[in-house]
Design brief:
240 residues; single chain; mainly beta; elongated; 4% helix; 5-stranded antiparallel β-sheet
């Protein structure tokens, strides 16, 4: 069994806000997203002097009850007085939330995803000026029968430092709408699906086996200012 390569990210999880352009039925569109929020985010490693990086996620998203698609706006901001220099925003999905695409960003290889995550994209920025922000369009799918979480770290260009991290923060609801075109989900709320039977939410396509969040995800949620472990999947060993 090959050993895992593990990188330590000291601090709490990083945030980023998404914005996806999707053609969704009913009310499940980007226009339904509420104001941006940095809920679940904290500064981690010390940023360069004068640089203050944060992220925003919408307070509310709407998930199409038929396709389970949703649109999220991910925003990274520099609230400091100095330009950031090269940075990158990561957009990572956990459990029932799968990130399908982030416009202008590159998918993270499966072996480099944090343990327990199912998908992720890396968004490189050459620079983010003082007082400026950058939003990204994100296509996502949310399994309404599960709990979905998203994690948005902001790092330096090589990933050796994490300046800010939001999440893994859940989107969910305690009041599903099984007979409506879409289900609104609120940031920071665990999803409680409708009971099986007549009120069960519509499901389409084959069921997805989502890797449970496990110890790594639990650490992310509970870490706070303490160190957390960002576990990478094993890389193939090169024979000498």
């Amino acid at each position: 069994m090959s050993s895992r390569r593990t990188t330590t990210i000291t601090g709490s999880l990083v945030a980023a806000s998404f914005s996806a352009v999707l053609i969704l039925s009913g009310t499940a569109g980007a226009d339904d997203q509420g104001p941006g929020s940095s809920k679940g985010g904290k500064a981690v490693d010390e940023a360069p002097a004068g640089v203050e990086l944060t992220t925003l996620l919408p307070e509310k998203i709407s998930v199409d009850n038929g396709s389970e698609e949703t649109a999220i706006t991910a925003t990274v901001k520099n609230e400091g007085s100095a330009d950031s220099g090269p940075i990158r925003l990561l957009v990572v999905g956990f459990d029932g939330l799968t990130v399908k695409n982030v416009q202008g960003c590159s998918p993270i290889a499966e072996k480099d995803l944090p343990e327990g995550s199912n998908s992720g994209f890396s968004c490189a920025l050459d620079d983010l000026a003082a007082g400026a922000s950058k939003s990204f369009d994100v296509d996502a799918r949310y399994d309404l029968g599960s709990t979905g979480k998203i994690c948005l770290p902001v790092q330096n260009s090589d990933g050796s430092k994490t300046f800010w991290q939001q999440g893994p923060v859940p989107f969910g609801t305690t009041n599903p709408s099984p007979n409506a075109p879409a289900t609104p989900l609120l940031l920071g709320t665990d999803n409680k699906p409708a009971a099986p039977g007549g009120d069960e939410l519509p499901r389409t396509g084959p069921g997805r086996n989502v890797v449970p969040l496990g110890a790594a995800g639990a650490t992310l949620l509970a870490a706070g200012a303490a160190g957390l472990w960002w576990s990478r999947r094993p890389r193939p060993r090169r024979e000498g």
